[in-house]
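Need M42 family peptidase's 3D structure for a figure. Predict it.
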Amino acid sequence: MDIKTILKNLSNLDGPSGYEYKVIEYIKTEAEKIPNTTNYVDNQGNLIVKREGKGKKIALFAHTDEIGFVITKKELGNYFRFHTFGGVDPKIVISQRLRIHTKKGIAYGVVGMLEPHLQTEEMRQRVLTFDDLFMDVVENSEYVSIGDLATFSSEAFELNEKYVTGKALDNRASCTTLLYTLYLLNQYVVENEVYFVFSVREEDGTSGASTSAYHINPDLAIVLDVTHGDIYRPGYPKIETGKGPVLDIGTMVDYKYFEKIKNIAEKISVNYQIEPNGEHSHTDTDRIQITREGIPTLLISIPLRYMHTPYEVVNIKDIEETARLLSYFIATGGE
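Structure prediction for M42 family peptidase:
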């Protein structure tokens, strides 16, 4: 399996929350190349890939959606106002090219703001908000309507043999990891019933994963997401890219299974990092672990630089090692 190609292809696809169908279709095509699997898309739009078994039900989750923007108002001429969903800092949007998804196809806009030469001193000191930004759509602006969605138009590429950069690696890096885990499982005799859930709408409220978890009702859920890598945060251990998967610990994580997967990582020599979380992880974990009567849940994260920007960065080794850990853990029944 060509992990880099899959990751770059997934990054280049547009799939903002609620509109993930292109991403889902691509993952479905890749999953169907892997033996011993079936798949279906549920009513919410989640892709569920299943390996039949008679033992414990284990479900792995990775959200497919990405942050995005919505056109909120038309100004004079070809200028539009817009806002974000998924949490984007206005400062990183300035001068970016956005791809607008209209009913008549793609239009492109450039994000602008009042030039510094024309700003008052009060404006220079004020914290920037989306009210200060506008989108300049020169060509096909007549096709743009209120409610149209937009995404970053950045293209993924390899920084070197280890690192890939592009948009939406939160959480397409985890989607790639799940596909690779599914591929590696064919090296083992797997008795358990295993579900790989490529869920929708995490960035706007985690509705996709929670409905899938309710439907599957697994004995163990494992959520894959990304976390902040290569940055110093006071009060937290430094998480580094290239140093292996991150095992999250906190009130939302089942401590028994946390110890088990940590022991498995040590047994098969997978380097891992531990990241503490408070009462919320701000991932699908928070909803899944309180689904039905409660589902034992693990959260495993992939270190990522520059989250929610046009060019996020991941280390391919972290994807490979996370998949190696997960495939062995699943093959042993999560024990």
